[in-house]
Amino acid sequence: MEFRLSRRSRTTAGVLVWVTIAALSGPLTAQVGQDAQSLSRALYDRATAAESLEELEQVLHDVDDLRQRSGDAALADYLTKLQAWVLHRRGEAYVKRAAEASAAGKVDESRRLDGKAMQDFHEAVRLDPQRWKSYHHRGVCYALAGKFEQALSDFTKTVELRPAFASAWFNRGEIRYELGQFTEALADYDEAIRLQPDDAGYYTSRGHAQFQLRHFDAALADYNRAVLLDPHNPERLVYRGEAYRSLGRWAEAATDFRQAVNRNARFGRALQSAAWLMATCPDDKYRHTELAVRAARKAIEIDGEDDYIYLDTLAAALANQGQYEDAQRTVRRAIRLAPPENTAPLQQRYALYRGGKPFRQTVDSGAPRVARQEQP
Q1: Which entry of 21, 89, 202, 245 is 20 to 30 Å from 333 by CA?
Q2: Domain count of the chain?
Q3: Same domain, 13 and 62
Q4: Which whole-number Å values give the CA distances from 323 to 262, 283, 295, in the listed order?
């Protein structure tokens, strides 16, 4: 799923926080003593300059210490909000380290750091219930942990506090999509696109929701827009190719899959989609016995043998080649790996292969649809 935390939210956080704290600090001079004012301003400057976790932790300690000792209500309120902001910044630092740990294959360390980030965002909104970006980032943490209902609540709170923040609408749409609430997700994607009409990822996700609602023409329109905005991304081409396939527009589907493979020969999903079309298309002009098997095997070599969709595709390619026993063995493995609700079409194909018949798709015949794996 595309939560945009690293790419989108952090880039503006410093500016937005500066505006918020600066606005709060303006009237303090007339309300508190000069020494306290100087201390609080120095802490703010240190918080702004802090880069490392260690620096942020020291600032937090000093802010909390001054807040506990302050007898001035205005200063205490200011320091509480400053503490919430620094907690938010530390949470972002934990998120960054978690991403680095994940990239290095340190899964447990990444989860631990994500948990620390969630705690900081949680404490930030406790101290400052209007801190909308902390709700948003906590929602991201919840989503990454698979806690979709909590994430949905946090993204809803974010759009209530900051209705012009497009990422919150988009992320709530992503959660609703994961929960199978496709109509509601569509409404959220609509608002995200209204606010930010040049984001290819927004159109791609709305296309997914349209696809699930079987609005294939609308899905195709969104995928077209995504490709126009991000023409070098092979993933966008695969999605558009799937929409073409569902509409029976085999030539356009074949072109998109071929272009996606040409742009990234190690993109397993493009190879899988191309293999499926070459193995199962009802128009023999687009079938290719040998290439379908090679592409299906290459996709598995790249992405592994644990995806039932890839195995289903290889089975179809083997059956198209007349290797029905191998096709049966392969589709049985796919059935074992597939979620229970997705096994019915696999069972039907297994019956075909047992009868010595290949599978041929029709328009929207239920061909394998690739799970979304968008980049952050």
Answers
A1: 245
A2: 3
A3: yes
A4: 28, 20, 16
| Rounded distance between C-alpha atoms, residue 256 and residue 247, angstroms | 14
Residues, the chain: 376
Q: What is the pLDDT of residue 35?
A: 62
Q: Which two tokens stand for residue 297?
A: 């095997």
Model confidence pTM above 0.85: no
Residue 167 lies in a domain: no
Q: Which residues of 269-302 are buried (b: 16+ CB within 10 A; e: fewer)?
A: bbbbbbbbbbbbbeeeeebbeeebbebbbbbbee
pLDDT digits (tens, 9 = 90+) for 112-123: 999 999 999 999
**Euclidean distance between CA atoms 227 and 105, whole angstroms:** 31
Please indicate, yes or no, whether residues 95 and 207 belong to a single structural domain of this protein.
no
In sequence order, which residues have a C-beta less than 8 Å from that of residue 132 and are 6 or more positions away? Answer: 157, 158, 161, 162, 165, 168
Query: pLDDT tens digits, residue range 185-194?
Result: 999 999 999 9
CATH number, residue 113:
1.25.40.10
Could you tell me the residue range of the domain that residue 310 belongs to?
A: 247-376
Average pLDDT over residues 241-246: 94
Cβ pair 137, 92 in contact under 8 A? yes
Distance CA(257)–CA(251), nearest Å, equals: 10
**Average per-residue pLDDT for the chain:** 87
CB-based contact 292:279 (threshold 8 Å): yes
* Within-domain flag for 236: no
- CB atoms closer than 10 angstroms to residue 360: 16
| 160-210 confidence digits (pLDDT tens) | 999 999 999 999 999 999 999 999 999 999 999 999 999 999 999 999 999
